Amino acid sequence: MGKLLRVLSIEDMEEETQLVMGELRRAGYLPSWARVDTARAMAAALERQPWDIAISDHPLPRFNAFDALELLKTMQVDLPFIVVSGRIGEHTAVRVMKAGAHDCIMKDSLLRLVPAIERELREAEERRERRRAEAALRDSEARFRSITAKVPGMVFQMQRAADGTLCFTYASEGAAALCGLPREAIQADAGAFTRLIHPADRDDFHGSLAVSARTMKHWNWEGRLRTDQEAIKWANCRATPRVLATDEVQWDGLMLNITEAKRREAQMKESRELLRELSAHRESAREQERKQIASEIHDELGQILAALQLEIAHLEMSCGEDRPQVQSKTRTMTHLLDRAVDVVRSVTADLRPGVLDLGLAAAIEWQAQEFETRTGIPCLLRFSNRDVSMAENRATALFRIVQESLTNVARHADASSVTITLAKNDGSLYLEVADDGRGVDPERVDRNKSFGLLGIRERTAMLGGRLEIRGSPDHGTMLAVYVPLQLGEG
């Protein structure tokens, strides 16, 4: 079955049109046509229906190929246009081709007509496909721009050559708000952006980019930008790399303004530091108060109890053995006074062990003996150096960490032994309390909000140190504190 072909014939003689249609039929086409010989008739035909090809004679009495081509341009119709004439000169044929005709064929050479038509039909279809693709691309780009315009930041596409040269192949409208530069400026010159990077952050920018290019891993960079207004902005870049056919690396990503988040982070950090300082001051005041109370109890109450003991002893000697009832009372009073003295010693030791004045190692050794006496759990001490000198408040904080750790062992560990390690190493002090008890789940430790562990964490932070807690069920627990030594400590 023949192929349908819609032909717009621009011809003043019907027999000439029939001659062309016959040639098409012989080639296997089923042509349907309309013949026009004026601009008005041609315009009406173009508006009435679409056509596959226009075949024009030149010249016509009231019309010609130049007029027809101009009309196609005016009406914005892309239609293959072939001039078939019996009396067109070479000069005129060249002019017609320059005006937009796709081919010129003499009427005595119609064997060229069908191949020319088929060629132009293919090229017309290719042009239509190209226009459809371009329209789809424009629509896609418009949607992409619409989406990126709503993104709070700069969407970008950046390429890096083998020599490290950068090029922004795309930057969204968000560039103006983030960088103070129009996106065209960044696309024209990547240096316009890199020059905004704070000098202290440039090496990290290029270094992290090089690592991402080498490993093909996600790129994540944070740094400061100095805009035209000399304002400092914090930016965060997140992008995914891929290798192009040219062996260049391209990142597709998003750059966000995180200045406000950084400001809140700094405020939160400052707030935490203030809270830590307040906590340290409170703890220092508490320890000082404990020391003062312990001293007053030891000195004042201790002296009164000692005087009472002397007075009771004197009373006992004065009464003699001929007054047994008085002797019995004085012995009872002596016994009660001895118990009161023990209570005073215990209270003062709990408030602040006087052995702390002899140093941290001596205080830990005393606490270990007290723990072993009270619980019956052996406590092994491993001191690489007993001569550890520290500021009083810092030594007291470490002693309280040991004290709280041993309390936790007694309450929860069900241990058969405890080992305390104290060592100095490379300008830091290492303290470890380990038991062989039931162990602890590290995840539960992180979620544990008990005041004991919170106190240990807070004291470690006050000392500028680092806390580690490790353990596993039925294999014991190890608590380690790393504290940097200050100037003059050691």
Give the topology.
Elements: E1 3-10, H1 14-26, E2 29-36, H2 39-48, E3 53-56, H3 65-75, E4 81-85, H4 90-99, E5 103-106, H5 113-150, E6 154-160, E7 166-171, H6 174-179, H7 183-188, H8 191-194, H9 199-215, E8 219-226, E9 232-243, E10 249-257, H10 259-319, H11 324-351, H12 360-375, E11 379-383, H13 392-413, E12 418-425, E13 428-435, H14 442-447, H15 451-462, E14 466-471, E15 477-484
Parallel strand pairs: 1-2, 1-3, 3-4, 4-5, 11-12
Antiparallel strand pairs: 6-7, 6-10, 8-9, 9-10, 12-13, 13-15, 14-15
Helix pairs in contact: 10-11, 10-15, 12-13, 13-15
Could you name the CATH class of the largest domain? Answer: Alpha Beta
Outline the biggest β-sheet. 5 strands, parallel
Please identify the structural class as seen in this structure: alpha/beta
Low-pLDDT ranges: none
Order of helices and strands: EHEHEHEHEHEEHHHHEEEHHHEHEEHHEE
The name of the CATH superfamily of the largest domain reads Histidine kinase-like ATPase, C-terminal domain
**Nearest-integer average pLDDT:** 86
> Separation of termini?
104 Å
Q: How many strands in all?
A: 15
Which CATH-level-2 architecture of the largest domain? 2-Layer Sandwich
- Report Rg: 48 Å
Would you tell me which CATH topology of the largest domain applies?
Heat Shock Protein 90
Q: What is the strand content?
A: 15-25%
Q: Which strand order does the major sheet show?
A: 2-1-3-4-5
Provide the number of structural domains.
Answer: 4
Compute the number of helices: 15
Q: Based on CA inertia axes, which overall geometry fits?
A: rod-shaped
Helix amount, in percent? Answer: 40-55%
